[in-house]
Design brief:
Elements lengths: L1 H10 L17 H4 L4 H5 L4 H7 L1 H17 L2 H15 L11 H7 L7 H5 L11 H9 L3
Helix pairs in contact: 5-6
Keywords: Chaperone
Pfam family, one: UMP1
Protein name: POMP protein
């Protein structure tokens, strides 16, 4: 079990879940459930790790297909566009849909779970704009 747990942790991608309120909000029990050390260390279901890495795996597959069909320049150009789009953001306390990233990935015409039930702009929690900007600029 320890080898399996170590391999799952090694294969996982760490990312911070930042909502509309940013890093300064408390723990939301309705959205995230109760905190548990076991839940933070191991995925609760075997498919959870696959679902977390779905977009990364899909991007890798698309880049490999593009490279085989069009050559090395196509995935490199697309990766440069992804990086450029990721750098353009709104202020940290404002909700950003990142429509350009959806267009690049081809998700602009798809309606998914997160489009309906995960809209931070409709959230009742709003962060303090001044504190969030100072944290982003490294003044805090």
């Amino acid at each position: 079990n320890s080898r399996r747990a170590a391999s799952l942790l090694k294969d996982s991608i760490s990312f911070t879940d930042v909502s509309a309120a940013g890093l300064f909000e408390g723990h939301d029990l309705l959205r995230r459930g109760f905190t548990s050390v076991k839940n933070e260390l191991l995925p609760s279901h075997p498919l959870e790790l696959t679902e977390k890495n779905f977009q990364l795996n899909q991007d890798k597959t698309n880049f490999a297909t593009l490279r085989n069909i069009q050559g090395i320049h196509a995935p490199l150009k697309l990766q440069m566009e992804f990086r450029a789009v990721k750098q353009v953001q709104r202020l940290p306390f404002l909700h950003s849909s990142n429509m350009a990233m959806d267009i690049l990935r081809g998700n602009d015409e798809c309606i998914g779970f997160e489009d309906i039930l995960n809209d931070p702009s409709q959230s009742e929690v709003m962060g303090e704009p001044h504190m969030m900007m100072e944290h982003k600029l490294g003044l805090l």
